Automatic annotation (TrEMBL):
Cleaved signal peptide residues: 1-23
Organism: Histidinibacterium aquaticum
Keyword Chloroplast: no
Segments forming domain Cytochrome P460: 78-172
Lineage: Bacteria, Pseudomonadati, Pseudomonadota, Alphaproteobacteria, Rhodobacterales
Gene3D superfamilies: Cytochrome P460
Highest taxon listed in the record's lineage: Bacteria
UniProt keyword Signal, yes or no: yes
Descriptive protein name: Cytochrome P460 domain-containing protein
């Protein structure tokens, strides 16, 4: 019985470690840097961003949001790109965000649809959460939030978004995103 309990505990620890290794690798961080650079070129990140009218959001994103849908080219692959700017704190109004968006920007969360072989189980989405300066946010364990964040876990990007309708991992729209 003791061996069985030890085996179960070891398997659980190995599974948890494996799910943590699915995201935040050096390659994920490098890819996220290239994605940020492309977003900056498109005016979706950085100092000269395109603005839109913020709308009311929900946690874990911001309480006010801006969302952009487009396509981008990263490392020779063109894919659908969803960029969500997350504003706060609780109680912030759209007028406050419009008057000083930099003051209220908490993070930028991104989904980029990579090549077909990246991860078919998640429709090949690459996930990233950036701080306003373009650095990657980290979870409490210090893992960079880029790549297959939350795959095989109880929390995180994929764990939440797998419940979106339409089997596309998108809560905000079921429209088919096309790539230029």
């Amino acid at each position: 019985m003791r061996n069985a309990i030890l085996t179960v505990a070891l398997c659980a620890a190995a599974t948890a470690a494996m799910s943590q290794q699915m995201a935040g690798t050096e390659e994920d961080q490098s890819y996220a840097a290239d994605l940020w650079a492309q977003m900056a070129d498109l005016g979706l990140a950085g100092d000269t961003v395109i603005r839109s009218f913020p709308y009311e959001g929900v946690e874990p994103h911001g309480l006010m949001l801006e969302t952009f849908y487009t396509s981008a080219m990263v490392r020779g692959h063109s894919g659908a790109l969803v960029v969500k700017r997350n504003y706060g704190p609780e109680g912030v109004t759209s007028d406050e965000v419009l008057s000083d968006p930099d003051e209220h920007l908490g993070s930028i969360t991104v989904m980029f649809q990579r090549e077909d072989s990246y991860d078919p189980e998640t429709n090949n989405w690459f996930w990233a959460k950036y701080l306003p300066d373009g650095t990657l946010d980290q979870n409490p364990a210090g893992m960079a939030l880029a790549g297959l964040v939350g795959k095989g876990a109880d929390a995180g990007c994929i764990a939440c978004h797998q419940g979106a309708g339409g089997e596309d991992f998108l809560f905000t729209t079921d429209a088919r995103l096309t790539v230029d």
